[in-house]
Amino acid sequence: MSHLLEVKGLHASYGPTNVLNGLDFSLEKGGVTTILGANGAGKTTTLRAISGMVTRSGEIKLEETDIGAMATADITRQGIAHVPEGRGTFVRMSTEDNLNLGAYSRNDKAGIAEDIERVYSYFPILKQRRTQQAGTLSGGEAQMLAVGRALMLRPRLLLLDEPSFGLAPLIVQELFAILKRINVEEGVSMLLVEQNAALALEMADHAYLLETGNIVISGTSQSILENETVRRSYLGY
Predict the structure, then answer these.
(1) What is the CA radius of gyration of the chain?
(2) Is the pTM of this model over 0.85?
(3) CA–CA dist 232, 237 (Å, integer)
């Protein structure tokens, strides 16, 4: 596999507070990579830095394109879709209007209509809720809508920030099974930030462990699962 995303020397900050201290990592084309770490380690900031949502420096390349100085809207047009923690749906708009909004940068009406049906094929419950205000959806349905809206961009890379947060275990299993289908069937690469380390490692092929803005362990998901420090600190055995 070749690299889809390469990050070198990534620093990020909020005002005077530095959060990331020169991260180096990569993501394979068609792969799923997870970033693990405790709250405050810098996981969410890493995704925001890739999306251009925080002050950052360093090299960020999407294949051969340097996106490190691009604005968020331009990064999105390069094929990176961000599903933020908290879902970020427009609560007063209908489910289908939220999906249409995900395709705001496109003007191919036939393709947009086709992709809405494709999203509904992954998430049939959203088709049932197509005219319902997004603010009345359950937590699991809202998370599915957030993922579906991101898919409307036809992304090459999906950034997922805590997709299991606040969801019941059965809903989490269903959501992650669908994400795996999207990865396998459509070749969408994914960078996953997830507090549930066991779940993340089960889905991903590569993992990085972040502590206070630094990568301290990296490797295949299997090697991370076998790491005693990770098992004790993040997997509970």
Answers:
(1) 17
(2) yes
(3) 5
For the chain, 237 residues long, the average pLDDT of each consecutive 10-residue run is 92 95 97 94 97 97 95 95 87 95 88 96 97 95 96 96 94 96 96 93 96 95 89 77
Provide the pLDDT for residue 233. 80
* Alpha carbons 83 and 104: distance in angstroms, whole number: 16
User: What is the reported pLDDT for 179?
Assistant: 97
Distance CA 171, CA 162 (A): 14
Going along the chain from its start, the domains and CATH numbers come out as: 24-89+154-235 (3.40.50.300)
Q: Give dist(CA 159, CA 62) in Å, integer.
A: 13
CA dist., res. 93 & res. 59, Å (int): 37
